[in-house]
Write a structure and sequence with these properties.
five-stranded mixed sheet
C-alpha cells in the first residue's frame, strides 16, 4: 500500500510510505527556503513523488496529519502572534482566535465552543485539499484526515521498535490539544489522556522565548542553550502560571493565550530581569512539570519503554531528564519530533487503520533519516562552474575530508540524500575538530549565529561509553542527536569545543549502518588524531533552513567563509581561506 501524507502546519511537509517503508520525506521549508514555511507543501509533494518514483495513479490513499486547521493554499512563512510584524498572513481563523481565545480561557464551556468553531470554519479543507491534489498533481486517491497528536504518537511508536511503549506527545498545540498519552502494544495505540491546548506547556516555553528577545516557535533551542548560563531566579514567579495537577494533568493557573500571556508574565517580572536567569527558570519549570506528568503515567501503566514526539521533545535537556528517570528503561525520540514529522506520522496512521493490515509489522527500528533529495556529481559540477569555484574530483572523498579536519580546517559536507527532521546528521553538515574551546565564538560568528549556542559532537560508537555517561536505553535516540548526556572527564579534556558549560553534550553516535559516510570520516580522523569525535553542526546560515540543493550549499559556503566544501565527490577550496577559518 502506498500512502502520500501531508501536513500544512509549521513547518509543512510531505512524505511517501510504501508498505511501512519511508521512501521520501521532506519539509517544504527546505525547498522554498522560508524557515517554518506553512500552508500546502506544494514543492514537497512534487519532490517526494519524484524522489520515490511514485506516480499519481500509484497512490492508494492521501493522509492529512491534522483534522482542524483552516487550509492555506500557499506555502507562506507564518510566525504567530508573537512578532510585531507577521512574516506571512495569518490564516483566517487565527484572526478570530486571537480575539476569542483569551475570553474562552476564562469560561470552561467557552473553550469547547472555541474548538468547535475552529473545526466548523476548517471544514473547507475537506473539499479544497482533494480538489487541489487532483488539479495540480492528478492525484485522485481518497483523502483521510487524522488527529494531530495521534500522528505525533504514530511517528514515535512505529519507528521506536518497542512493541510495548508509553507514547507521550507534547507541543504548542494541534487539533485542540497540546499533549497526549498513549499505550502502545502489539502495534496498536490506545489513548489514555490528553492535555488541552489552553494548558500548553510548549506554548508557555514559547512565551518566555519571546520575552527573552528571540523568535517564538523558532528559537526555543536558544533558550535551552541560554539556560545553562543562568540561575532559576524567577522559578517561583513562573510557577504561579502553570503547574502539574493530579491526576496526570498540566494546567494553567490563570487563563493565558498569546498576547495576554506575554502581558501577564512580563507584569510579574522585574523590568531589568536577566535573560539567562529567565531561561534557566522556564527550563526548570518545563522539567518539573513535564517530569511529574510523565511519571504519573509511567507509574500508572507500569510501562518502562517510552517513545515520544512533539515540539517539547526537541528540548534535549528535558529528554535527558526523562531518560534518567528510574521508571524508564528505554527512551526513544522520533528524529522529526516537530510538526515536520507529522507527515510520516499521518502515513503510519493510515497504514495502521487500513483493513487487512497487521500493525505489528509496522514496528521497525529506524535505520537512518536520509529520506530527502540527492544530486549526482555531474549536476553538482555544473553548479560549481556556474558559481565560478575551482574544484577537484576526489574518488576517496571521505579520507580527504578526514585529513583536512585533522589539519585543522573547517569542512562543509554535502552528500547523498538530505536528512529528514531538524538535525543535520552528516549529509548537510559543517565539520570541525572538537579540540578548540574558542570555536563557539568564531564559527558562530561566521554563520551569524548566537555565540552561546553549543556545537554537538559526532562520536564513533566504539568509543561512545568512554565519552558519555548513561547511554544505555537511549542509544537509538543518540543516533539522531535528540538528547544530551553528561560527558566523562576524558571527553571534557579531549573535546572542550563540544562540552557545554553544564558538562553535557548532545551527541550523534555514529555507526556504519546509520551514517556510513560520516562514520568513515570520523574513523579515519580517529586514526590520524586519536580523537573519536568531530563537531557536527547544521550547514546553513542563521535564519535559513538547512541547505537542500548544490546551489544552497555553494552560496552558504561562500557566505560563511568556510575553508573547504566537500560536495558529492568534488572538493571546493575557498580562495579567500585563512587558517582555521578565524578571519
Amino acid at each position: 500500500m502506498i500512502v502520500l501524507s501531508i501536513i500544512d502546519s509549521k513547518p509543512s511537509s510531505a512524505a511517501i510510505l510504501k508498505d511501512g517503508e519511508i521512501l521520501s520525506a521532506i519539509a517544504e521549508e527546505r525547498l522554498c527556503r522560508m524557515k517554518m514555511a506553512s500552508g500546502m507543501p506544494r514543492q514537497a509533494i512534487h519532490q517526494v513523488m519524484a524522489d520515490s518514483a511514485i506516480s499519481a495513479r500509484e497512490i492508494d490513499v492521501v493522509a492529512v496529519a491534522q483534522k482542524v486547521s483552516v487550509f492555506e493554499p500557499e506555502p507562506v512563512a507564518w510566525n504567530g502572534w508573537f512578532d510585531s510584524q507577521h512574516a506571512g498572513k495569518p490564516r483566517p481563523f487565527e484572526k478570530i482566535s486571537g480575539t476569542l481565545a483569551p475570553i474562552a480561557g476564562y469560561i470552561p464551556f467557552a473553550q469547547k465552543a472555541h474548538h468547535q468553531l475552529k473545526e466548523f470554519l476548517s471544514r473547507k479543507r475537506l473539499v479544497q485539499i482533494p480538489e487541489l491534489l487532483e488539479a495540480e498533481y492528478a492525484i485522485t486517491a481518497p483523502v483521510k484526515y487524522y488527529d494531530h497528536h495521534y500522528c505525533h504518537a504514530t511517528s514515535a511508536y512505529f519507528t521506536s521498535n518497542y512493541d510495548e511503549a508509553l507514547v507521550v506527545t507534547l507541543d504548542g498545540g494541534g487539533d485542540g490539544l497540546s499533549g497526549s498519552v498513549y499505550r502502545g502494544e502489539n502495534g496498536r495505540l490506545t489513548r489514555l489522556a490528553v492535555v488541552d491546548s489552553f494548558n500548553s506547556l510548549g506554548n508557555f516555553y514559547s512565551y518566555i522565548t519571546h520575552l527573552c528577545g528571540f523568535k517564538a516557535e523558532s528559537h526555543e533551542g536558544k533558550i535551552t542553550g541560554l539556560a545553562a548560563l543562568g540561575k532559576p531566579a524567577y522559578i517561583n514567579i513562573l510557577r504561579e502560571f502553570v503547574s502539574y495537577k493530579d491526576p496526570g494533568q498540566i494546567q494553567y493557573s490563570v487563563p493565558m493565550y498569546h498576547r495576554s500571556a506575554l502581558k501577564q508574565i512580563a507584569g510579574r517580572l522585574p523590568a531589568d530581569f536577566e535573560k539567562a536567569d529567565l531561561a534557566a527558570s522556564v527550563q526548570l519549570l518545563l522539567e518539573e512539570i513535564g517530569i511529574e506528568f510523565i511519571c504519573f503515567w509511567l507509574r500508572k501503566t507500569g510501562i518502562r519503554s517510552m517513545a515520544v514526539a512533539g515540539g517539547v521533545f526537541s528540548n534535549v535537556k528535558f529528554n535527558q531528564r526523562v531518560h534518567e528517570l528510574k521508571e524508564v528503561d528505554n527512551f526513544f525520540v522520533h528524529p522529526a519530533m516537530d510538526d515536520s514529522g507529522l507527515a510520516v506520522g499521518g502515513a503510519f496512521a493510515a497504514l495502521a487503520q487500513e483493513p487487512g493490515t497487521d500493525p505489528p509489522h509496522l514496528l521497525k527500528r529506524l535505520k537512518n533519516v536520509y529520506f530527502g533529495t540527492q544530486y549526482g556529481d555531474d549536476e553538482i559540477h555544473a553548479c560549481i562552474e556556474a558559481f565560478g569555484f575551482h574544484a577537484t574530483y576526489e574518488a576517496e572523498i571521505t579520507n580527504v575530508v578526514a585529513k583536512l579536519l585533522a589539519e585543522g580546517h573547517v569542512v562543509a559536507r554535502f552528500t547523498g540524500r538530505m536528512e529528514y527532521g531538524p538535525r543535520a546528521l552528516g549529509h548537510r553538515s559543517i565539520l570541525y575538530q572538537t579540540t578548540d574551546p574558542s570555536i563557539n565564538d568564531w564559527l558562530n560568528a561566521h554563520l551569524l549565529r548566537t555565540e552561546f549556542m553549543p556545537f554537538a559532537p559526532a562520536t564513533l560508537q566504539e568509543y561512545a561509553d568512554e565519552c558519555f555517561e548513561g547511554l544505555d536505553g537511549a542509544r537509538d535516540a543518540a543516533r539522531f542527536m535528540t538528547i544530551t548526556f553528561h560527558c566523562t572527564e576524558k571527553m571534557r579534556a579531549q573535546s572542550p569545543g563540544v562540552v557545554h558549560v553544564d558538562g553535557t553534550a548532545r551527541p550523534q553516535i555514529l555507526d556504519p549502518e546509520t551514517a556510513p559516510d560520516l562514520y568513515q570520516i570520523a574513523k579515519k580522523y580517529h586514526e590520524l588524531t586519536g580523537i573519536p569525535s568531530l563537531i557536527n553542526t547544521s550547514f546553513n546560515m542563521h535564519g535559513e533552513p538547512i541547505v537542500c540543493t548544490p546551489e544552497d550549499a555553494l552560496r552558504s559556503f561562500k557566505q560563511g567563509k568556510l575553508d573547504y566544501l566537500a560536495i558529492g565527490h568534488w572538493l571546493v577550496v575557498n580562495p579567500e581561506m585563512k587558517r582555521n577559518g578565524k578571519s
